[in-house]
Input
Amino acid sequence: MPRNLLLSAKVLVILLAPFVWTSCAMIMGESETSEEQVVTMRTTKGKIVIELYSDSAPVAVGNFKKLVKKRFYNGLTFHRIVNNESLNIVQGGDPNGDGTGGPGYTIIDEYTLPNQRPHLRGTVAMARTNAPNSAGSQVYICLKPQPHLDGRYTTFGRVIQGMDVVDLLEIGDSMKTVRLEVKSKYVKPQ
Output
């Protein structure tokens, strides 16, 4: 290949690289910016802001974001609240409203990944049946630390604003709107 042509090809690759990168990100469903996102959930009782842990559970986070973008959660209710000595959670995300439904598919469990985070107050995790790889759309939020759930359920985020709202939730309260927003709107950069 002549030297000038080779140089022109290298310049073309350098000039087109940002366009190709942005196009691939848009095709994959990511925003054009590299800013992190949070999920805001406007409920009957107020707003909850959830930080997502892509490093801990990439499949669960990707699935949750996909469902949020499809507005799957809008209007769904919190169908389960357990607050006793052995379990302290609020659960929702079932289109049937009774704990039996999901999005029509399931995802793999990620609770054995090395970056999994513990079940602390405010932790958001995937609910599932006793069968492996049976999570889909149902999620729960821990009202108190739940160490007995570590290594059994996939954790993928935590409430960074609105735990007072989570504490007020009752069975039948709804997720009016659930959407992705820019994290810097809620968390100041350090």
